[in-house]
Amino acid sequence: MRRIIIRLTILLGLVVAVACAPPELTPSVTPSVTPAVTENGPVAATDAPPGEATEAPTSTKEPTMDAATATVSPTQTKPTAEPTQPPFEPRVRLELVAEGLTAPVSLKTAGDGSGRVFVVDQAGLIRVITNEGELLEDPFLDIRDRMVAINPGYDERGLLGLAFAPNYEESGLFAVYYSAPLIGESHPGWNHTGQVSWFTVSEDDGNVADPDSELSILRADQPQGNHNGGEIAFGPDGYLYIALGDGGGANDVGTGHAEDWYDVNAGGNGQDVSQNLLGSILRIDVETPGGYLVPESNPFIGEGEQGLAEIWAYGLRNPYRFSFDAGGEGELFVADVGQNLWEEVNIATAGGNYGWNVKEGAQCFSASAPNQPPEDCPDAEPDGTPLVDPILEYENANAPGGLGLAVVGGYVYRGEALPGFEGRYVFGDWSTSFGVPDGTLFVATRPEEEGAMWPFEELEMAGREGGALDAFLLGLGQGPGDELYVLTSQNPGPQGSTGRVWRIVAAE
To answer: Which of 114, 136, 277, 463 is deepest in the core (most CB within 10 A)?
Structure first.
């Protein structure tokens, strides 16, 4: 039966599992990143003290959007729909596009007018689906030999992100995020390094990339194997946005986590902005390949600021997927996977603090008793910076009546195939169980009252028994014409060949 959700308030009993949290690893130091570069080339790697973090080279490129609000002017986006929309019915049909993949987690277009879509397979491949719907056998890119060994049963590492340069048609450049073996000796015993790199398409074949063209953009050492984020995307301003989780483990505490201002929960990377980049959305200028510059409009650049210059928003646990609205005001929607009790979606803005680990969703959180949240907690940092509540939240499947174990971010719909969906946010949840594929798709509607939670409801899958997805939901994608795709598997981990790509179409 279809569920309509505004904000769940079921009283919580004790729950038995920690969402997406493998055992803790040990050693403890702060992650490093590749240094920023000057206009004359890379700077030698250093571990700068927190107070010197804002000395990273800055970019003077003129942004094409308001950096304080991360919204674009109406002239830079597609026009929004007319005020009168067709009737809305939360019912769609999934049309199979491709199968035989391992773990498709993302789908992007190159913006080159070819009509192709590029599917990111967590196992280490990027595959091409042509405009005619053919899944090419030869991969666009294969980086399996550059990744850390991933666990087939379940893993949050792998090839996780893809972003084509805004001028891809001319430059042939695209960026990827993947989990590499630990690079360097700064953090012995840590789990891996999050690697963001440029690659270039082959000069001879537009459906194949040059594997030898890799050029490092940024690295972030990860103390543990989970909570990696991994989404990357170019914003309407032309800058590259990068999602980094809080470093893994449970509760944002333990090995590899920094001290912060909230002593009740023994610190955590989500609330730290001076010691590492984890638990944040980064914003950097990569217009010139070979490192990066920091946009002068980033929130932690300026006299007296004490944050790392690359950080654009923070207070996040595992921002597994984010997307920019292709219309409207170009808002940035960030889905943040919760701990035990709450899943959330935020609209992120420059300098925003989204609460983790002081809060889980809009609720107070206790690192020592994650199933028993305290009644009271701060709503702001000591300096008055508010902890921004999400636009929507729902209870985790560990709680009675919970909807799923991990929110999967989606897109604001701006296509034409789904009457009545214009401006609504389509997203989902991975599954209610590790043992049974039981993912869900939802659709949320912007409320008329400013600041109110977005009401959302389950999307019914026409032509399927009970209207259910009956698969693990690994990701959503936005293809040509801003139409939406769904990425699924019958396996909880990156193994086998049950990965499928579906296009969302009208139920008819």
So the answer is: 277
The DSSP call for residue 135 is B
* Amino acid in the structure at residue 357: N
Please give the torsion angle defined by the CA atoms of residues 278, 280, 285 and 286, in that order, rounded to the nearest 10 degrees: 50
- For residue 64, what pLDDT is reported? 46
Per DSSP bridges, beta strands 456-458 and 71-72 are unpaired
Query: What is residue 168's DSSP assignment?
Result: H
Cα distance between residue 32 and residue 276, in whole Å:
7
Cα distance between residue 422 and residue 45, in whole Å = 47
| Residue recorded with tokens 């070819």 | 114
Structure-token pair, residue 214:
């890799």
What backbone torsions phi and psi does residue 344 show, to the nearest 5 degrees? -145, 160
Residues pairing with 210 in the sheet = 200
And the tokens for 505?
């179409």
* Contact yes or no for 93/462 (Cβ under 8 A): yes
Distance, CA of 355 to CA of 265 (rounded, Å): 12
Buried b (16+ CB within 10 A) or exposed e, 257-286: bbebebeebbbbbbbbbbbbbbbbbbbbbb
Q: Can you read off the two tokens belonging to residue 2?
A: 């279809």
Relative to beta strand 460-461, strand 91-101 is parallel
- The CATH number covering residue 248 comes to 2.120.10.30
- Other Cβ atoms less than 10 A from the Cβ of 304: the count is 5
For 166, the domain range is: 4-506
Closest of 437, 356, 432 to residue 389, by C-alpha: 356
Structure confidence at residue 351 (pLDDT): 97
Q: What angle do CA 259, 264, 270 make, to 5 degrees?
A: 45
Mean pLDDT of successive 10-residue stretches along the chain, which has 508 residues: 43 36 35 37 32 51 46 43 74 98 98 96 98 97 98 97 97 98 89 97 96 96 96 98 95 88 92 96 91 95 83 97 97 97 98 97 96 96 97 95 97 97 98 97 97 97 95 98 98 98 95
| Amino acid residing at 404 | G
Which residues contact residue 384 at a Cβ distance below 8 angstroms, ignoring those fewer than 6 apart? none
How many domains does the chain divide into?
1
Q: Phi and psi (nearest 5°) for 466?
A: 70, 5
How many CB atoms within 10 Å of residue 318?
31
Give the dihedral of Cα atoms 129, 133, 137, 142; nearest 10 deg.
Answer: 10
Beta bridge partners of 500: 99, 488
Which pTM does this prediction carry? 0.86
- Distance between CA 403 and CA 119 in Å, rounded? 27
d(CA 6, CA 430): 20
Cα–Cα distance for residue pair 292/103, rounded to 1 Å: 30
